[in-house]
Amino acid sequence: MTAQLIDGKAFAAGLRARVAQRTAALRDAHGVVPGLAVVLVGEDPASQVYVGSKEREARAAGFHSVVHRLPAGTSEEALLDLVATLNADPLIHGILVQLPLPAGIDENRVLLAIDPDKDVDGFHPVNVGRLALGQPAPVPCTPRGCLMLLKETLGDLTGREALVIGRSAIVGKPMALLLLAANATVTIAHSRTRDLAEVCRRADIVVVAVGRPGFVPGAWLKPGAVVIDVGINRLPPAPGEAKGRLVGDVDFDSAFQVAGALTPVPGGVGPMTIACLLDNTLEACLAAKGLAGAF
Ligand SMILES: Nc1nc2c(c(=O)[nH]1)N[C@@H](CN(C=O)c1ccc(C(=O)N[C@@H](CCC(=O)O)C(=O)O)cc1)CN2
C-alpha cells in the first residue's frame, strides 16, 4: 500500500472560494470590503513571487488589496512609519510584512509595531500569547493550513501522537500549540533531539519544518503515519534544467511507501498559506466591524 496524497492545492482552492463567497455576502449586506496591505522590502525572488500571489488572490477574493514594494535599502524607521500609517488606515484590516526582511532591519521591532488586531500573520507577541493561552487570535497561516489538512485527513485528532520537527516561531511552535489545542499528545523535536528516528517511529502524525531537503526518510516513519511536509527547498538545477526542482523536507519516494497519507511539495502545504491569509483577513475585518461569526 502506498500513501494517500493530501491535495493542499485543491483544499486551498475550496477555502479561497468560501472566503470569496463570504466577502461578497459581507459587501452586499453592509458595504464593507476587507482590506489587506502587504509590505515587501527588497528583491528576494521567492518573496516577490509569494507577494505577487497574495496580491492576486486577495483581489480575486474581492478584497481591497494594496502592496507596498520598498527598496532593499529602506531604513527601519521608514518601515515603522509605513506600518503606523497602515495601522491608522480604516480601509485596511490586515497588515502583513513579508519575511525575511533584509539584514539590518530588526524583524521583531517591526512585527511588534503592527496593531495586533490587524496582524493577519499572527506573529505579534500579543497574538502568540493569545494562542498559547487558548484565546481567540489570528493563527499563523502555515500551521493553520497544516491543521486544516490534518483534520480533513484524520478527523478528530484527540489522543493522536503528534511529532513536530522544527521549533521556529513561524511554524514549529504555533503548530505544536494548535495540535495541543486539538487534544493531540505533542512532541517537539529539534536539532538537539537525541535519536530522532526512534521518536519519529512512535508518531501517528509527523509535521516536518526544518528547511533541509529530504531530511526525513520513510524508514523513520511508523507505517500508516500522516505526514505533513512544510519544507519548500529548491535543488540546484540538473543539467539542461533552467531552475532546480522544488522538494520538501521529507524524502517523498521512500515516505510514500510507508506513510498512510502525505502532502506533496509543491501542491501540499504551500497553497494553504495564502488561503489562510485571506481567511485571517476576512476574520480581522469582521471583528473590526463587530460582525465576528455573522458571515
Ligand atoms: N510574513 C510572512 N512571511 C512569510 C510567510 C508567511 O506566512 N508570512 N511564509 C513563507 C512564504 N510564503 C508566504 O509568504 C509562501 C510560501 C509558499 C507558498 C506556496 O504556495 N508554495 C508552492 C510552491 C511555489 C513555487 O513554485 O515556488 C507550493 O508549495 O506548492 C506560498 C506562500 C515565508 N515568508
TrEMBL record:
<keyword id="KW-0521">NADP</keyword>
<feature type="binding site">
    <location>
        <position position="232"/>
    </location>
    <ligand>
        <name>NADP(+)</name>
    </ligand>
</feature>
<comment type="similarity">
    <text>Belongs to the tetrahydrofolate dehydrogenase/cyclohydrolase family.</text>
</comment>
<keyword id="KW-0658">Purine biosynthesis</keyword>
<feature type="domain" description="Tetrahydrofolate dehydrogenase/cyclohydrolase catalytic">
    <location>
        <begin position="6"/>
        <end position="121"/>
    </location>
</feature>
<keyword id="KW-0554">One-carbon metabolism</keyword>
<dbReference type="InterPro" id="IPR000672">
    <property type="entry name" value="THF_DH/CycHdrlase"/>
</dbReference>
<dbReference type="InterPro" id="IPR046346">
    <property type="entry name" value="Aminoacid_DH-like_N_sf"/>
</dbReference>
<keyword id="KW-0511">Multifunctional enzyme</keyword>
<feature type="domain" description="Tetrahydrofolate dehydrogenase/cyclohydrolase NAD(P)-binding">
    <location>
        <begin position="140"/>
        <end position="286"/>
    </location>
</feature>
<comment type="pathway">
    <text>One-carbon metabolism; tetrahydrofolate interconversion.</text>
</comment>
<dbReference type="GO" id="GO:0000105">
    <property type="term" value="P:L-histidine biosynthetic process"/>
</dbReference>
<dbReference type="GO" id="GO:0009086">
    <property type="term" value="P:methionine biosynthetic process"/>
</dbReference>
<dbReference type="InterPro" id="IPR020867">
    <property type="entry name" value="THF_DH/CycHdrlase_CS"/>
</dbReference>
<keyword id="KW-0486">Methionine biosynthesis</keyword>
<protein>
    <recommendedName>
        <fullName>Bifunctional protein FolD</fullName>
        <ecNumber>1.5.1.5</ecNumber>
        <ecNumber>3.5.4.9</ecNumber>
    </recommendedName>
</protein>
<dbReference type="Pfam" id="PF02882">
    <property type="entry name" value="THF_DHG_CYH_C"/>
</dbReference>
<dbReference type="Pfam" id="PF00763">
    <property type="entry name" value="THF_DHG_CYH"/>
</dbReference>
<dbReference type="GO" id="GO:0035999">
    <property type="term" value="P:tetrahydrofolate interconversion"/>
</dbReference>
<dbReference type="GO" id="GO:0005829">
    <property type="term" value="C:cytosol"/>
</dbReference>
<keyword id="KW-0028">Amino-acid biosynthesis</keyword>
<dbReference type="InterPro" id="IPR036291">
    <property type="entry name" value="NAD(P)-bd_dom_sf"/>
</dbReference>
<comment type="subunit">
    <text>Homodimer.</text>
</comment>
<dbReference type="InterPro" id="IPR020630">
    <property type="entry name" value="THF_DH/CycHdrlase_cat_dom"/>
</dbReference>
<keyword id="KW-0560">Oxidoreductase</keyword>
<dbReference type="InterPro" id="IPR020631">
    <property type="entry name" value="THF_DH/CycHdrlase_NAD-bd_dom"/>
</dbReference>
<dbReference type="GO" id="GO:0006164">
    <property type="term" value="P:purine nucleotide biosynthetic process"/>
</dbReference>
<keyword id="KW-0378">Hydrolase</keyword>
<keyword id="KW-0368">Histidine biosynthesis</keyword>
<dbReference type="GO" id="GO:0004488">
    <property type="term" value="F:methylenetetrahydrofolate dehydrogenase (NADP+) activity"/>
</dbReference>
<feature type="binding site">
    <location>
        <begin position="166"/>
        <end position="168"/>
    </location>
    <ligand>
        <name>NADP(+)</name>
    </ligand>
</feature>
<dbReference type="GO" id="GO:0004477">
    <property type="term" value="F:methenyltetrahydrofolate cyclohydrolase activity"/>
</dbReference>
<comment type="function">
    <text>Catalyzes the oxidation of 5,10-methylenetetrahydrofolate to 5,10-methenyltetrahydrofolate and then the hydrolysis of 5,10-methenyltetrahydrofolate to 10-formyltetrahydrofolate.</text>
</comment>
